[in-house]
Each structure stands twice: as structure tokens, then as C-alpha cells.
Amino acid sequence: MYKASLFFSLLLGAIFLIPTALPADPPSHEVWDALLKKYVSATGKVNYKGIKADKTKLEDYLKTLSSNAPESSWSKPEQMAFWINAYNAFTVKLIVDNYPLASINKLHGGKPWDHKWIKIGGKTYSLNNLENDILRPQFKDARIHFAVNCAAKSCPPLLNTAWTASNLNANLDAQAKKFINNPVFNKLSDKKVEVSKIFEWYAEDFGKIIDFLNKYASTKVSAKAKVSYVEYDWALNE
């Protein structure tokens, strides 16, 4: 009896001594932040030629993302920042790998969004997967559309700072306000608005469009204002 008790005591002790894997912390986005600050202007114009010459740093960052998929232990802002950075960084890589290029729509038969090539945490994603299967349904925040960048002139400009949990909410608000009030993308008046196609394509995310615009618009729009949509310019955002 004593031997059996001793055996089980030793076995139990051994079990507790077995090292268990701790959840990984979110990766650093400092490399991506440095690239953005160096090669993206304050207005979101991207120097793809410069990034191509500095491609090793971009690829190192993407490897970091690939091997550090978000964990359930991360906060929602940490997860959201990760996926926004991933979308933007992999989009930049897609352009850089094919640069010079007139438009992202020239790639993969005009369907670059559906091409599955992004490896994160042992899974393979397309850009559409990142946006429509992760970012939109998991976080349910329409401001995401002003954070992800599709490498086109009509897309909300690429922020020249990496997204982090600490700057997430403030930058989402700032990006929404800058985009909505920029007449290059949206023309607002009391009785008439001409807005980006983004508001048409993702109407379900924005709810009542006038109400959403008025959260950020400098010029308040009447609830009865006529709404039309501006044609999208898919030329490269350089």
C-alpha cells in the first residue's frame, strides 16, 4: 500500500513538473512601423520601389506574423491590430512582388482578393478571408474599412504607422474622420452627398449611411440628402 501511494505521489509530482506551453504574446510590429514611416507619406502614398529595395525587412515581418497567429488569450484590440497589419503588409508584399504594376486588379486574373497565399498559424488565407471571414465578422466595427488598404487610389489611405492595441481606437476614429471629410473621396453637403463605393459595397456594416457620416462629418448632412456613389479608381496608390 505504501509503495502504491508513493508511486502515485511521484507520478503526480512528475505531471506537475512537465512544462506546459504558455500562450504567446502578440508579436512586435516595430519593423512594419519603421517601413511605413520610411516609405509611406502622410497622405498615404506608397513608395513601392523603395520597399522593394528593402524587401528583406518586409519578409522578416511577414514571417513573424505567419508564426504568431492570434491567441484567444490576446485582447480584442491586440487581435484586431494584428489582422489589420497582416492585411496591409501582405497587400504591400503582393504589389512589391509584381512591381512595377499599374493596378492590383491586373493580378491573378483580376481576382487578387480570392487568391489564397497568405500563411498564418498553419492556415492559408486570401485577402478576402482576412477581411470578410475574420475582421468584419469577429470585430463588427465599420471603421475597419478605413484601416485596411487595397493598394488603390480610391482606397482609404494607408496609415503610415503600424496598428497596435494602444493606438487602435484613436486611429480608427482619426482614419474615419480624415477619409469621410476628404473631398478627394467624398463630397458632402446638406442636401447631397457623393461618397465612396465602399459605403455601397459594405452597406450592411455602416447601417444608415447618413447617420454614420454625421458621426465624423464636418459638414452635417440632412437625413433626406440624396446619396450617390463615386466611381472607384483602381490605379496604384503611389
From TrEMBL:
Q: Where is the signal peptide?
A: 1-23
What Pfam families does its record include? DUF547
Q: Name one GO molecular function term.
A: electron transfer activity
Q: Does the keyword Signal apply?
A: yes
Keyword Signal included in the entry's annotation: yes
What keywords were assigned to this record?
Signal
Organism lineage string: Bacteria, Pseudomonadati, Bacteroidota, Saprospiria, Saprospirales
Q: Name one GO biological process term.
A: cell redox homeostasis
Annotated DUF547 domain ranges read: 72-180
This chain belongs to the protein called DUF547 domain-containing protein
